[in-house]
Amino acid sequence: MPIICVNLVKNMNIFQFAFRNVFRNARRSIITLLAIAVGYMAINLFGGYIARIFEGMREGAVFGEGLGHLTIFKQGFLLEGKIDPTKYMITAEEQAKITELVAKNPAVQKVIPKMATAGLISNGTSSSIFIAGGIHPDDFAFLSKDYAYRGEGTRITAQNAIGVQIASDLAKMMQVNIGDTLPVMANTLEGQMNALDVQVAGIYNTGSDATNDKYLLMPLELAQSLYDTDAVDRISLVLADVEQTEPARAWLAEQLPTINFQADVRSWNELSVFFGKVKNMMDVIFLFIFSIVLVIVVIGVINTMTMSVVERTQEIGTLRALGLRRRDVLRIFGAEGFMLGVLGVVFGLIGTVIVVALINILKISYYPPGVAEAVLIEVAFAPVTMIGSGIFLALLSWGAAIIPSFKASRLRIVDAFGHV
Q: What is the distance between the alpha carbons of residues 237 and 248, in angstroms, rounded to a whole number?
């Protein structure tokens, strides 16, 4: 056997030799393999889960919230727009120039002017504050084409100039039903009180506890009439691909000054209320889980290889006496650790496929904080995470196997023969 081992090492069949040695103590190796496989599965499942969350949040922000990929504000609006809104509105003339400019960029699919408003809504006996988003019904239909309407009544339409969608909690507070007409009041941009009638076209859940008791969605022209203006406060752009967001922003930064328009251009993830905070939280949790898995893998492999080194010390002495060099001893045990890691990753990958399929088939849902509707638990396959973590775990197993074998490789041949 030792002569065969030396020949195998010299002939560079070290992984074949390592595969044989891994299962010399099958029970111990299987336990270590299971630890690596389960840890790898945990990384893949959580990585796939947060990948699906980020994908859903991105689509929800761009289309569900109607933020678009990029939003153009007049410079200073985000800091002082609430104090002096008239100064920072985008006039009809400026809208036309911006629309003509962005039409030259093939990445831009849709230009969507919008207006945010706020005021009071009354049912005749009581009043409540509201915040509202004004958008052309056709533009809103474009943004929401992949989202089925789950509320009562209908979405805002071009056929009903005063029709609005009202958040369900606000509708409950105001005790209104589909078809009811209500007065809304707000100060115009000049500071004068203005009142208009709106009709409840739809009652829907905004999906957020923070807005479900105060939000209205109305046609842009209605919002402009309430503020007595033909201006808007922002222009959103929908791009062909989310990957074009930053290149398109850089292009806008270069081109908008050419039409004498100084702008602040913000991306969807900067404007989304929850995305940045949720992403940071999920990244920390993922790092925490990954660290736990690393500790388990290192301890498991070191324990297995330490026992193997102790049991095979005399064999190491024999191999050394037959001409095996110290670095070859390290290569043998390193290859065994690497083989443990690779096999654990393979079994973990198989387990990942099975568990992901089960989770997606069972369609489990839950209520996350701050969300008014149940959210489906979905796990995606995250190739970057799976490949990266698999390679890292295999290399980590190799490194963990080197540690206990280093001392054995340094033993004098005579001491190795005398080891009991």
A: 10
Contact, 62 vs 238, CB < 8 A? yes
> What is the spatial distance between Cα 325 and Cα 336, in angstroms, rounded to a whole number?
17
pTM summary value? 0.71
pLDDT tens digits, 104-116:
999 999 999 999 9
Rounded Cα gap, residues 246 and 70, in angstroms: 9
User: How many whole angstroms separate alpha carbon 287 and alpha carbon 295?
Assistant: 12
**With contact defined as beta carbons under 8 Å apart, do 220 and 138 qualify?**
no
Distance from the first to the final alpha carbon of the chain: 20
Task: Kindly report, residue by residue over 112-165, the tens digit of the pLDDT.
Answer: 999 999 999 998 888 899 999 999 999 999 988 877 788 899 999 989 999 999
* 64, 217 Cβ separation under 8 angstroms: no
Q: What angle do CA 58, 65, 137 make, to 5 degrees?
A: 130
Strand, helix or coil for residue 259: helix
4-9 contacts at long range (C-beta below 8 A, 24 or more positions apart): 5/319, 5/324, 5/332, 6/319, 6/322, 6/323, 6/324, 9/324, 9/328, 9/331, 9/332
Asked if residue 189 lies in contact with residue 85, where contact means CB atoms within 8 angstroms, the answer is yes
Task: Judge contact between 342 and 367, C-beta under 8 A.
Answer: no
Q: Residue 313 is which amino acid? A: T
